[in-house]
Amino acid sequence: MYMPEGNLYYTDENKRFISSIDGLTEAMEKKIILEARVKLCTVSHDLIVDLPCCEGIVPREECALGINEGTTRDIAILSRVSKIICFRVIRLSIDQCGKTVAYLSRSVVQQECMERYVSTLTSGDIIDATVTHLEQFGSFVDIGCGIPSLIPIDSISVSRISHPSDRFTCGQRIKAIVKGKEGDRVFLTHKELLGTWEENMSFFHTGETVPAIIRSIEEYGIFVELAPNLAGLAEFKTGMSPGQHVSVYIKSVIPDKMKVKLVIVDVCGTDSEDVPIRYFVDGQHIDSWIYSPEECNRTIASFF
Question: Where are the domains of the chain?
Fold first, then answer.
């Protein structure tokens, strides 16, 4: 019920409710959560929402949790323009021109989401999230009704990336794992969903030549990503740069050291089609994740 914003917008039920005054009235009486796109933010930081049947207004104090208390900055309101938000209809009135105006509240929905959904989450829970924006240090996501959380860059995948945009795009729907909580803050991780070393390695074999991405260049070699949770080391080669798509020959695989030795065959450019994320975990909860093979002396693991 309390999904990231954008999941209700295109549903037939949502379209029916926002398309007529009768629909908005019914939604108000039944306290139904609706979604619509924000057209603009006024000088006073009220949000004007695009409703087919009338003008929709989200007053500044109703735009997000924490606005009244000063714990949420106004940039959280301004950044909603042209984006889909959730809300409840709190009042319908007639303006001086005889037109219906719908007054809406997003913060009411967020408060309910915090109390009935976010408060029930425990470490190890697997949840739906939507990427909202990307910073050098991590990816901000919507975990329900516009409530934000962060996946730090080092928790996105085992294979190191220079920026979260190497892995995610804004608006992308992903899965995440609850790593912990502190008050109302939820801490997330993502890499544990992308498979163990052995699970990823099962898709590759010695002697094959496969597509890959250069992630970093060191004096002793070039780290090349075969999959989000699997990288190997290729011999140093001039003319290479991070982000390049290449074809690599798999020279050898050493499970007890979690090493894959590669040879760069050719450069394939920097552009490629977006590949859907492959998740290796089913269900809604995990208690532990051990990335390294059993025979490996070094253990990489997470416990929830």
Answer: 12-114, 121-194, 197-269
Sequence-distant (6+) residues with CB within 8 A of 300 are: 158, 290, 291, 292
Element (H, E) at 36: strand 34-41
Q: Which two tokens stand for residue 101?
A: 């105006």
Q: Which fold has domain 197-269?
A: OB fold (Dihydrolipoamide Acetyltransferase, E2P) (2.40.50)
Identical fold for domains 12-114 and 121-194, yes or no, is yes
pTM of the model: 0.92
Query: Which amino acid, one-letter code, is at 116?
Result: R
Task: For residues 191 and 176, give the distance between their C-alpha atoms in angstroms, rounded to a whole number.
Answer: 9
For tokens 């735009």, name the residue.
63
CATH number of 121-194: 2.40.50.140
Residue 67 confidence (pLDDT) above 80: yes
Residue 98: pLDDT band with limits 50, 70, 90: confident
The set of residues, in sequence order, having a beta carbon less than 8 Å from that of 125 and lying 6+ positions away, is 177, 178, 284, 285
pLDDT at 273 over 90: no
